[in-house]
Amino acid sequence: MFNQCGKRIKMYFFHPTFNLNPMIRERLFPLTLISICCFLIPHCFAAISLDAQTVRHGFPYQPSSMAHDPVQKILAIGTQSGALRLFGRPGVECYCQHESGAAVISLQFLINEGALVSALADDSVHLWNLRQRRPAILHSLKFNRERITFVHLPFQSKWLYIGTEKGNIHIVNVESFTLSGYVIMWNKAIELSSKAHPGPVVHISDNPMDEGKLIIGYEAGIVVLWDLKSKKADYRYTYDEAIHSVAWHHEGKQFICSHSDGTLTIWNIKGQGKPFQTITPHGKQPKDGKKPEPCKPILKVEYKTTRLGDPFMILSGGLSYDTVGRRPCLTVMHGKSTAVLEMDYPIVDFLTLCETPYSNDFQEPYAVVVLLEKDLVVIDLAQNGYPIFENPYPLTIHESPVTCCEYFADCPVDLIPALYSVGSRQKRQGYSKKEWPISGGNWGLGTQSYPEIIITGHADGTVKFWDASAIMLQVLYKLKTAKVFEKSRNNKEDKQNTEIVEEDPFAIQIMAWCPESRMLCVAGVSANLIIYRFSKQEITTEVVQLLEVRLQYEVNDMESPPEGGGGGDRDLPTPGAASPSPQTTGPPTHPSTSSNSSDGVRDNVPCLKVRSTPLKQSSGYQVELVVQLVWVSGEPPQQITSLALNSSYGLIVFGNSNGLAVVDYLQKTVLLNLGTVELYGSNDPYQRQARSPRKARQPAGGLCDINEGSASEDRCKSPTSGKLSFSMLELCVFSTCVRMLYLSVLSSTVLLSVCPPRGANPLDHRDNSFSRSRSSSVTSIDKEAREAITSFHFCETFARKGDSAITPCLYVGTSLGTVLAVALNLPPAGEQRLLQPVIVLPSGTLARLKGSILRMAFLDNTGTFLPPAFETWYEPNAAGADSEERDKARKRRPVSVSPSTSQELQESQYAVVCSEKQAKVIALPSQNCIFKHSITETSFVLRADVVQMNIGNCVACFCANGHIMTLSLPGLRPLLDVNYLPLTDMRIARTFCFTNLGQAMYLTSPTEIQRITYSQETCENLQEMLGELFTPVETPEAPNRGFFKGLFGGGATSLDREELFGETQAGKASRGLAQHIPGPQGLEGMKGAASGVVADLARARIALDERGQKLGELDERTAAMLASADSFGKHAHDMMLKCKDKKWYQF
C-alpha cells in the first residue's frame, strides 16, 4: 500500500489474541504481533503516514523572503529550498514545502483572509489556504514565457500584480487564479524616445490615496506612475543609478527610492524633472558641494509616518566602502537622529510592523522584523535605544553547529521543572519589556501525557537541553563544557603537537545521560570525557578532578594467534614493551606529565589542558570528573567511538578503535584498560596480521599500558588520599583469566563501519556516497587487526553460560560483530562503595553477528523490557538533614528480576542484539539464539534502538537506503518498512534518534530539527495537537476621510478593479503565457487525507460542508427562480394593463 505522499509502506497485522504471553503467542500465531504501525479493528485498519512529519523546529535554513499579516499577526518565511515556515504566538508554528523545491522569491498575505501567495524562482505562483491546521495549496499558476521578479497584492484586493524580467506586468485573479487580459507592457510605460530596455521590474505598488495610480520601478533607474484607467503613464522619473526599492509616503504625494550608489531620492509625484531631495545616509559630505562618495547599495527602504512625531526611514545596506570588515547594519532614521544597528549575519529582508494595515493612514510603526541569514531579530521602535525583543521561538539550535543529539521520551516528571529552574537564571538582560509582537493563532487542544527532552551537543562544546513535550520546543538549560579547559593559546607549535583536530577542539561527539539520576557524561573530539552531577546549589571547585588514561597500543612484531583463536599460554610482555607512566593525576595540582624522548616525541600529553584555577560552578550541571586520553610515544589518542554511564554502579565506560576503559567516577579510578583483542583471551576467532604503525598525528596501535610494579599501582590509585585502589595486575589475580589480559595487540587497520553508532566524528570528512562494500562476513574480517568498540550496555544478567544467578554486567559490542561480557563485582552500597574496590572480570563471548554491533537490550521471560539499574537523584551538595536523605538515595536500585523456577520456561532472560546487518534474540543463561532476522542485505543499519511502546516493545532501525523498519520483540517479525528518507547527508546519519513511545528525530538541515512519529496514537491526535494559524478577527475600520476632505475631495479614491481587469473589458489573456494548475486540496483532497479518529470528524465536517454547499446552491437556484417568477409576473401585469381597455379587434 502507499501513504499519502505516494511512498510505499509495507504493513503487517496481528491476530486478536494478543493478550497471551509474548513467547507463547509468537510460537502459536506467527502473525500475532504487537504492532506499533497499525491498530486493527475488525475488518479494518488505520495506516499511519510516517512521512506525516509531526513538526519542524529551528531556524528556516537559507531564508529568502518574508511576509507579515498585520491583522492576524502571523509571520511567513520562505527559503531557497522552497520551504515555508509560518509563525504565530510562541508554540504556534507550521512547516510547508513546495514540491518543486525552487526558491521562494516573494510572499504576499491576503490580509485577514487566511491565505498566502508565494512566488517561486521557477516562475510559479501558488495560493495557500491557511484556514486549516496543515496549510495546503489551492491553486498554482506556472508562467512559461517570462521570469517573475516582483509580486504585489493591494490590501483588500483580489487582483495580484506580477512583474517580470522583461519589464511587463501581468494581473492575476487570486480567487480563480486566472490571468487577466490587462497587461502593462514595458515599451508603453517608458518614454517612446527611449531606446534602452528599462530592465526587470523591481517594485510595484499603488498610490495610497488613489488606487487607480500604480507606481512601477525598473532596475535601470526609471520609475513610472501608471494610470490604470487610461492605460498610460502619467509621469516618468529617471535617475542615473539603479533602483532597488521604492516606498510611498502615506499621503500619496511623495515616494522614496533606494539606489545602488547608497543614496535615497525623494520625489514629488508631480515633479518629474529631478528628485525633491537626495540623501546619502552613510556617505561623507564633501565641503565643496560635490557629490558624496559612493557607498554600498541600499537594498531596501521603508518610509513610515507617525501622527505625533517625525517619520521613520528604515533601510538596509548603504554603508561606506571604507568600512572594511564591518558587520551588516540596519539604519533607523527618525527626525534628526540616525541609529545604526549592527547585525550578526547578513540581512535577507526586513519588515516594519505598524498599527494599521491601511497604507493611506499614519502607520505608527512600533517594531521592525529583521530576517538574517541565520537569525530572526525583532527591534522595538517605541523604546529609546531600540532594544530587541526576546525571541520565544526555538531558533538558536544552530547557534553553534550541532554535532550530536539525543532524544528522551517519558522522562521523570520533575526533570523539566528542575532544568527550567536552573536555566531561567541564564537568561540575558536588556530585552524590550513589551510582549512579543507576533502573537497570532491558537494553540492546539491535544497534549501528550508524557514529558520529552532533546539534548543537542555543539561544536563549541555547549550542551543544550530542550523541552520537546507535545509538539513544542523550548530551551531549558545550556551547559558550557569548554569552561573546564584552559583557553587556547596562540602558540602554533604547541597547538600542532597536542591537538588532534584543527577546528572546534571542544566539540561534543557523544553524550550519555541518565534522566533518573541526572548524571551526564559528554565525550569530546579531543579524546576527553567530562562527568557532571546536577545540583541546585552554587559551588566553587578549587581543583578539577582529573584522570589521564593511556589507551594506545604500540606495535610489536608478534605472532598472530593461531587460526580459530586457538589457545596456549602466552608470555607476559616485558616491562620495557611500553614506557610506564601514571594514568591518573589529581588534586591538589595538575602537574605536567609530558615527557620527551631523545628525538623530541611527545608522550603522556593530553590534547586539552584542564584549568588549574578555581572554577565557579552555578546551579545546574557541575563537573565531577574529567578523563583524558593522552599521547603515547608521539602518536595522538584515537577519538572515542562509544560511551555508556550507569549511575547505580557509579561507572563510566568508553571505547575507541584501540580498546576500552572502565572508570569508577565515585573513587576516581581507572578499573579496566584493555585492548579489544584482550577481551577475547585465548579464544580470539580472528587471525590478525601485523600492520605497520601509523605516522605521527594519526591514531596508532600498540600494547596497552598494563605494566607490573609501582607504575601500575600509581596509575590506578585514587586521587583522593587514603582510599584503597587496586592495580590492573592485582585485579587479574582475582580472576582466573590472567592469560587473557596479556595478549599481543597488533597494529591498526581500517574500520569497516562507515558511521559507528553514537560515535561518528562530527568533524570527520567521510565518504557521503555510502557506495563502498558493506560485507561483514567472517571471511572478510579474518585478517583485520583493528577492532573498534561500537556499543556498551550495563545490565543485571547472567555473566556466563549456565549461571544460576544474575550479577551486574557490562556487555561490549565491537565493529566485527562480536558481543562480549564483562562481569562487575560491586561492593555494598553506602560507605563501603567508596572504600572497597570494584572488580572487573571479562567473561567471554555472547554472540557474533554480521556488521558492527549497534544496540543491545534485555527482556525478562515475559518479554518485558529490563532497563539498566539506576539511582534516583539527590542533592550532592546537601548538608544536615538533607545529607541523610542523600545517603539513603545512594543505595542501588533493586532490579526485580530473578531466574524462573518454571519447568516450562527454563530461560529467565532474553538478550536483544542488533548490528548493521541483522538482529538476534538470545536466551539466557543458555546463550542459545532463539530468533534471528536479517534486516538488510543491500544496505546497512545506521541507527537502531530498542524502544518501548504503550502495547509492547520493538526494535526500530534506520538504514542507509532511507528505510525505517520496526521488528517485534522477542520474535523479530517485521512490523513496518517505510522508504522514508534517502540518506544524502552524513548529518542525518549522525543525528537520527529513536526514542520510546513511537517518536524519532533528526537534523534535517544545519539549523532545523525534524520530528517524526511511528505511533498510531500520536498520528491520530496530531491534528488536534497542531495549532491554528487563522483565527476570526475583525478588520480594523478604514481611516475617516474627514468633513472637508469629503466635501472638497482629497481623500482616498477607490477603483473598481473587477470592471477594469475582468474579462468583459480587459479580454482574455494569452493561452500560452501561463498554465493554471489546480491544487490537490478542496473537498476531494480532504477526503483522501482523512484517516483515524480525526478522519471521522473530518468526514463529518466534509459531509456538513457538502450538504451546506448543496443547500446553498439550492437556495441560490430557488432565489433565481423566484426572481424569474417576479419578473414574469411584472411583465404579465404590464401587458394586462396595456391590453385591458382594448377591444378584441384592436389586437
Automatic annotation (TrEMBL):
Gene3D superfamilies reported for this sequence: 1.20.5.110, YVTN repeat-like/Quinoprotein amine dehydrogenase
One GO MF term attached to the UniProt entry: GTPase activator activity
Membrane topology, as annotated: Peripheral membrane protein
Domain of life from the UniProt record: Eukaryota
Subcellular location(s) per record: Cell membrane; Cytoplasm
GO cellular-component term (any): SNARE complex
Family from the record: Belongs to the WD repeat L(2)GL family.
Keyword Iron: no
Protein's name according to its UniProt entry: Syntaxin-binding protein 5-like
Chain segments annotated as transmembrane: none
Gene: STXBP5
PANTHER family: LETHAL 2 GIANT LARVAE PROTEIN, SYNTAXIN-BINDING PROTEIN 5
Keyword list, A-Z: Cell membrane, Coiled coil, Cytoplasm, Exocytosis, Membrane, Phosphoprotein, Protein transport, Repeat, Transport, WD repeat
Domain V-SNARE coiled-coil homology: 1082-1142
Main location, first listed in the record: membrane
InterPro entries referenced in this protein's UniProt entry, alphabetically: Lethal2_giant, Lgl_C_dom, LLGL2, V_SNARE_CC, WD40/YVTN_repeat-like_dom_sf, WD40_repeat_CS, WD40_repeat_dom_sf, WD40_rpt
Region: Disordered, residue numbers: 557-605, 684-721, 879-902
WD repeats: 236-270
A Pfam match: LLGL
